[in-house]
Amino acid sequence: MSGAIRTPRFNVLFLCTGNSARSIIAEAILNRAGAGHFKAWSAGAMPTGRVNPHALALLEGLNYPTDDFRSKGWEEFARDRNPDAPELHFVFTVCDNAAGEICPIWPGQPMTAHWGVPDPAAATGSNAEIGLAFAEAYRQLNNRISLFVNLPIAALDRQTLQARLRAIGDTADAAG
Fold first, then answer.
1. Which of these, 80, 98, 103, 121, is most buried using a 10 Å CB contact count?
2. Is 155 helix (H, G, I), strand (E, B) or coil?
């Protein structure tokens, strides 16, 4: 089938409160690491309206395309508000505030888990210190997403998969 577009097998939404740093970084990582098998998006409960410039600089420095990133609300992905929203298979919160907020009802009952990461946008100090906070958030998210994309999803029953997703969020963030 020459010219056919292969659609991703699993749609993933990363949620954070502001959708300016952690969820954007996670979206970038998964779209690269899971290309062909996953399609990622990000959103926030109270989007800031702009992507943090430190997040963009980090991603650009790692050769990620950044032109399409924007801070947006999660209602864009709630089918009761947007009938064109993609069907979600997985929804991950990456900040503690979003984990405790009331989320929309996601059609199709996607698997959910909390993968909290300290907010690099809250970092203070020199540009180097702030850059280190963003690099650390990237490292933690990259480790977790690497574990996720390597799960044998099709071979796991729903309960086992849910347990594995939660365990990824509880993973000590040592390298690998």
1. 98
2. helix
pTM: 0.90
3-state secondary structure of 17: coil
CA–CA distance, 167 with 132 (Å, rounded to integer): 26
Whole-number pLDDT of residue 1: 46
For residue 105, is pLDDT > 80?
no
What sections of 49-171 are H helices per DSSP? 53-61, 96-100, 127-149, 158-170
Q: Helix 53-61 crosses helix 127-149 at what angle (to 10 degrees)?
A: 60
Residues 114, 169 contacting (CB under 8 angstroms): yes
Neighbours of 131 (CB within 10 A): 17
User: How far is it between the farthest Cα atoms of the chain?
Assistant: 54
Structural domains for the chain = 10-167 (3.40.50.2300)
Q: How confident is the model at residue 39 (pLDDT cuts 50, 70, 90)?
A: very high
Q: Are 52 and 138 in contact (CB under 8 A)?
A: no
